[in-house]
Design goal:
Layout lengths: L5 H29 L13 H6 L3 H32 L5 H9 L6 H11 L8 H13 L18 E4 L2 E4 L3 E2 L3 E6 L24 E7 L22 E6 L2 E7 L5 E4 L6 E6 L19 H26 L3 H9 L4 H29 L3 H6 L5 H4 L2 H9 L6 H30 L1
Parallel strand pairs: 4-5
Antiparallel strand pairs: 1-2, 2-9, 3-9, 5-8, 6-7, 6-9
């Protein structure tokens, strides 16, 4: 007989068996046993904890979120990894590109969660995501708003509030000057380009006026422009006659506006409600509606580089003569990619997809760190719920153990797929 005896082989394998039993087999067996008992571990409840998984609304939310994760995250990671891998074959700076995309893998998931918690901050001055969105929005639409600004509520005020808008109390004739004083804002809330308010010069046949912040600390004359009061730039002003808008203009830095070419007649000068809505501040990434997609985005940022490296290795192993033969036969690049590259890459793509599915089922760190406490129930996943009900204040290790076994059952089929594939490659 060649080689060492089975006893010697068993002797060397014994430490691995001991560690495997202590770290894997025993925790699984104990979790199964513990899941059959109540929260304190003193009362046998049978399968009641497993029934609670499918009857408790919060636990059903975690299952729904995990289903979203399994369907969306692995597919996007695989597709992006494929796109990045193909790009690295066609660009000169492929090494730098791979380094940049793969770099998040060097960061722990906990640190990645902290990074994206800052990225998703609501304030555009702090959150990168909303800073980008608001910058793009401001290119196509004005974000100048004066939330809280309003006219004075007395008989002497020349303007009044009307369903969120500000309108003149008396109709104005062409050639007149319209004064629109507003209050309700601090002087430092005005834009930096706001200049000292001044009266507009009415031209014959035109309609002019001034919109300004009628507030002077320590005094000042009501409904009149004082020396240190500033205009309100960027406000949309409409000239309305017979219920229809006949002209639209915008206030200058000193608050003046001018309508030219208006037909003769009387007009109601109106500041639309849009002037007094809050400035566009981006999306509420950490709110209940977007929290799960936001965390999935962080997951993709971390794992796209991993998928790219595996798929790029698979691409490099594809025989180039098969691709060249297809091109010589007249196939387009898209046909070569769809009919040759993808089929030859399918084993690698399956590995990436299954690995990502297993990772999404076990995701914990990103959800725990990124989701604020107020919306964590909406973003909850099975792994986090397992920790929460067992150690995070729930104090129910029976239900937590049942969730752990349920998660194990979900992961086992995908582990079996990988094992079958490994055996098929070795045979």
């Amino acid at each position: 007989m060649l080689g060492p005896s089975p006893k010697i082989a068993l002797f060397f394998l014994l430490p691995a068996f001991v560690l495997l039993g202590a770290w894997v087999i025993y925790p699984i067996v104990y979790s199964i046993w513990r899941s059959l008992y109540d929260a304190g571990g003193g009362g046998f409840v049978g399968l009641e904890n497993y029934g609670a998984i499918f009857s408790d609304p919060s636990t059903l939310t975690t299952i729904r979120n995990n289903l979203i994760w399994v369907v969306v995250a692995p597919s996007l990671v695989t597709v992006l990894g494929l796109i990045f891998a193909v790009l690295t074959e066609r660009i000169r700076w492929a090494t730098a590109f791979k380094l940049i995309v793969f770099m998040p893998m060097a960061v722990s998931l906990l640190a990645s969660g902290v990074i994206f918690r800052l990225v998703y901050e609501q304030d555009p001055d702090k959150g990168v995501a909303n800073a980008i969105i608001t910058s793009v929005h401001d290119v196509f639409a004005s974000s100048s708003g004066y939330p809280g600004a309003r006219p004075r509520e007395n008989d002497q005020a020349p303007v009044a509030a009307d369903q969120g808008a500000v309108v003149t109390k008396q109709p104005a004739q062409a050639g007149q000057q319209v004064m629109i004083p507003l209050v309700g804002l601090r002087p430092d809330a005005l834009p930096d380009d706001a200049a000292g308010a001044k009266q507009a010069s009415a031209t014959p046949g035109g309609l002019a006026g001034t919109v300004w912040l009628d507030f002077t600390p320590g005094g000042g004359t009501v409904n009149q422009i004082d020396g240190n009061e500033r205009g309100m730039p960027g406000i949309t002003v409409e000239a309305v006659s017979g219920g229809a808008v006949k002209g639209t203009t915008t206030t200058a830095p000193d608050g003046t506006f001018q309508f030219a070419g208006l037909p003769e007649g009387s007009y109601e000068v109106r500041l639309p409600q849009s002037n007094f809505s809050a400035q566009f501040g981006g999306a509420s990434w950490l709110g209940p509606a977007l929290i799960t997609p936001a965390i999935i985005g962080a997951f993709i940022w971390v794992w796209a580089g991993f998928a790219m490296v595996l798929i790029a290795a698979g691409l490099s192993a594809i025989p180039r003569d098969a691709l060249e033969a297809a091109r010589i036969d007249g196939a387009t690049e898209w046909q070569v990619f769809r009919r040759i590259t993808i089929p030859l890459l399918s084993p690698v793509l399956l590995v990436v997809l299954v690995t990502m599915i297993i990772n999404t089922l076990k995701v914990f760190d990103l959800v725990f760190v990124i989701a604020p406490g107020s919306v964590q129930p909406e973003a909850n996943v099975i792994a986090l719920e397992m920790w929460r009900v067992s150690f995070g204040g729930g104090g129910n290790q029976g239900l937590g153990s049942a969730l752990a076994i349920f998660l194990l059952v979900l992961v086992l089929p995908f582990m079996a797929i990988n094992i079958r594939r490994f055996r098929r490659e070795q045979s």
